Amino acid sequence: MVGQYVRLTPAGKGRLKGLCPFHNEKTPSFQVDTEQGYYYCFGCKAGGDLFSFVQRTENLSFGDALRKLAEQAGVTVETRYGERSSRDIYDVNAFALEYFRQHLPGPGLEYFHRRGLTEETIARFELGYAPDGWDGLLSSARSRGLSDRQLLEAGLLSENTQTGRVYDRFRGRVMFPIRDHLGRLVGFGGRVLGDEKPKYLNTPETEAFKKGELLYGLNFARSAAQGGGELIVVEGYMDVIALHQAGFDTAAATLGTALTAEHATLLSRLEVQRLALMFDRDEAGLKATLSGLDQVVGSKLRVRATRLPSGKDPADAVMAGELHAVRQALAGGLDEVHYRVEAAVQKYGVATSDAKRRILMELLPRMQNLDPFDESAREMRRLACEPLGLKPEALQDWIANKAKRKTLTDTHLAGMSSSPQGDHELALLRQILLAPSLLAKLDGQTPWHNETVKKVLLAARGARSSEEILEVFRGQPEEQLLIRLMFEGRDPRAHSRAATEQFEQKVGAYAAAAVDDIQAGLSIESMRAEKEALAQQMVQASAEEKRALLVQISELQRAIEAEKRARRMQA
Q: Which three-class secondary structure string do you get for 131-149?
């Protein structure tokens, strides 16, 4: 059974191994003990018996996993009352689908043809029509021996609480069958053909239909989006259907709700890693969507928000033949991780310790998961370190220390700040603000560590005064930092002409020394980074490869020591 999901190879007596289906890996750490009947992953620590494996891979309850295994083994399992209730709903929904499909010819079919759907697409998505009338479905169901109570439990009837009268819930609507990710028919969505309200009507909450856990079209999209693919999340049934017809086979839609933690849990179990939210909103609306995104969704999935340049919804764009615009939109968009970091930096600035403290505390909920498989948290930590000038390992240590997280003091921030190299870069920027002509001393190739310094120096090219530089960043987060550096760099004693000339000479000498210091420091940092990368490669290297890597590491270490000696001699 496990071999249906994982490619297994022998790993000793009674053991098989393969790539774990529950997390991404390149080296097999997933093992199956055929004699004991259990599995275990030495990477993510997942383990259990066959039932738990099926539950986890298919996101099933124990009862459904038991039934699935029983069906494959040709064994009949008796169903208890509570479980039978859900099975009844599937059967009643199957009858309703047959009824809606029978009534499709006419206004329903004409509507779908006007929307550009082919007969193949209409059949694949099992589209139907609920005719006008109060008891068409009800009468047909009674003739087939189905009770009113069964139809009520499936959400196919509505009931007048005062009179007790029951009647068809869906009337005069095109019908969209809603299946869960396993393909079970759990409910329906209906859309009116005119301007009646409500425009869309879904099955109410039932034993089988829980809209906060369902995504329309996921039964089709899951296979294409699994294993690193990107799920396109849209807002409407027609958006999903039109995108699939146009070849975008990873499209799915929420059922009138925001993305929930339950959605994220389901998708992560299905090995979906990335989401592209394609909504017909302006950029401010997309930012609001990302800002309000459930923290669990962001921690389990990489999320982007995107929109068509025309502002159309995906279905209308596809019908208009704007497939290139759809592809272009999906290639861009706002990345949720980048957006949160940039929004926090713009909100508070980075000029003061208090601003940095506020940024870290705002981002903490989304970057505090130190699980190596949480790509979003890892990327957010990396992005936060750049504008704040923090050492990645120091930030990680602070996050891991719950006591330090409660109070982030200036001492903590100072200890987390990046190497003195960052201080030198700021010092150089301070001097350039006083004498922009010093920019000519820079070769333009220096890979600046401080993102703010890099941004300012790039924008300052050609500036003739500090005021011109400051004007470029008027109203931006960098403005506060530049003003502070300018005031720190002024010498209040430099009033006379002689004192001014002496001060300018000091400025030039300091800047020249800073440039040399920074370039030497970058050289050492670059060699250290290369040495660390080689050390990581040794973990999975063969014996012969390890010997070659050791030689390279030794040569790099000698080069680092030589650079240090040269710097000491210059000092």
A: CCCCCHHHHHHHHCCCCHH
